[in-house]
Amino acid sequence: MKKIIIAIAIVVICSMGFTFDGGGKLPTVVIKNLDGSKVSTSTFTNNGKPIIISFWATWCKPCKKELDNILDDYADWQKETGVKIIAVSIDDARTSAKVVTDVKTKEWPYEVYLDDNQDFKRAMNVNVVPHVFIVDGNGEIVWSHNSYAEGDEIYLYENIKHLIKGEKLEH
What does the buried/exposed string (b/e) look like for 89-104 if buried means 16 or more CB atoms within 10 Å of the residue's CB? Predict the structure, then answer.
């Protein structure tokens, strides 16, 4: 019984939003781009500037709301910090056809990839979407947050600016 209570507590804690200071290098996994070609995550680079990796799904309203709200300021974010956003859909084979439609309809300028086997999701220990990571210019995962509430994108961008300045990221 004690083990069950501990397991439930761990699941509850993991399903809440969280941040951390470091998570190692970005794992190398093969996923697909929108035309179905295979791409290795080892090719994710941004000329030494930060990358935001957002795990999302077509059925996840908070995921799409977050990406929509980031879009409102994305051009300014890029101009000020050079940050790049990579949106990784975890839709499976049944729903992945909706990804291209969503991306085109919403006119997201992000790099969008399909993780339909969810290998990258597992490698990144993503349990709940939306789940956002900040990767520094050296490919190190330096921050993570899951779930979304209106205004979280402001907090995300503040951390990007701290990273660019070499300051400690906020939790």
Answer: bbbeeeebeebeebbe
For residue 13, pLDDT over 90 is answered with: no
Which domains, ranges and CATH numbers included, belong to the chain? 2-164 (3.40.30.10)
DSSP state of 43: G
Q: Read out DSSP for 58-96?
A: TT-HHHHHHHHHHHHHHHHHHHHH--EEEEEE---TTTT
Helix (H) or strand (E) holding 30: strand 30-33
Q: Report the SS3 class of residue 78.
A: helix
Q: Which two tokens stand for residue 147?
A: 């779930």
* pTM (predicted TM-score): 0.85
